[in-house]
DNA sequence: CGCCTGGTTCGATGATCGTCAAACTTCTTT
DNA sequence: AAAGAAGTTTGACGATCATCGAACCAGGCG
């Protein structure tokens, strides 16, 4: 539900961004969300309203490892990199993912959120 | 939607089965569904109405590999092994999974189904 | 300018995972 | 009883993956 609302908001405010790579298939989406570190990143992104500074999205791993995970999330089409105020941010492409796998982000993040409470 | 209805049916007809291992966390569920062979197994299980003979659930891999994947699905709590007419069957624990991760199976299988059409 | 913060890229390493063949069990069938 | 079909287990091999440190590339600020 949270993600669904997020999808609407981001659909409204999304910059064109023109040519960004398409969201990957369900296979690759699941592979991307399967990792604990990456799932936490996505969970925090939802918590933050769909967009956040990289630094705030991880804990317990080095920044080179974090950059590696960001890349995988981006290549799966789950997030995109954008620059706000000169600092790099990650944005959750909730609406795009929902087009390929309706309800997936909601189910996954919801379960993760409940497991974190 | 298909899975949701399936959950209801299986909830009705499920044998007690008493002490079966609990469904794993979202992490392990995603890890189990991430593999192409296993996702296809689950997809075919849904197609078959929630229960099928092992043999009908895979193609292109040896039966030892298939047995390995069945084990992983079982350990994640996604399926259970039951014997019908003397032959081993795999049953999708749709309702149990839906308790831990509501909507997950629907989203994943739905996307997989659409990608297979 | 020089320094620090925030991210990325590039090997390298260690662990995990998917795959197979072979041996074994059980049930069915002839 | 013998033969076959269906699944599982084990051990081994190759590939993929997560992690790290180090070097590198921006901006922002002293």
UniProtKB/TrEMBL annotation, chains A, B:
Residues 28-106 form the HTH arsR-type domain. Signal peptide: none annotated. This is Transcriptional regulator. It comes from Nocardioides phosphati.
């Amino acid at each position: 539900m949270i993600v669904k609302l997020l999808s609407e908001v981001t659909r409204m405010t999304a910059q064109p961004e023109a040519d960004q790579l398409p969201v990957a298939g369900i296979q690759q989406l699941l592979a991307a969300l399967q990792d604990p570190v990456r799932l936490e990143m996505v969970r925090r992104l939802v918590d933050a309203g769909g967009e956040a500074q990289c630094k705030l999205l991880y804990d317990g791993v080095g920044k080179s490892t974090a950059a590696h995970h960001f890349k995988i999330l981006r290549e799966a089409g789950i997030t995109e990199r954008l620059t706000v105020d000169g600092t790099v941010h990650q944005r959750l492409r909730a609406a795009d993912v929902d087009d390929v796998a309706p309800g997936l982000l909601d189910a996954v993040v919801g379960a993760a959120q409940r497991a974190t409470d």
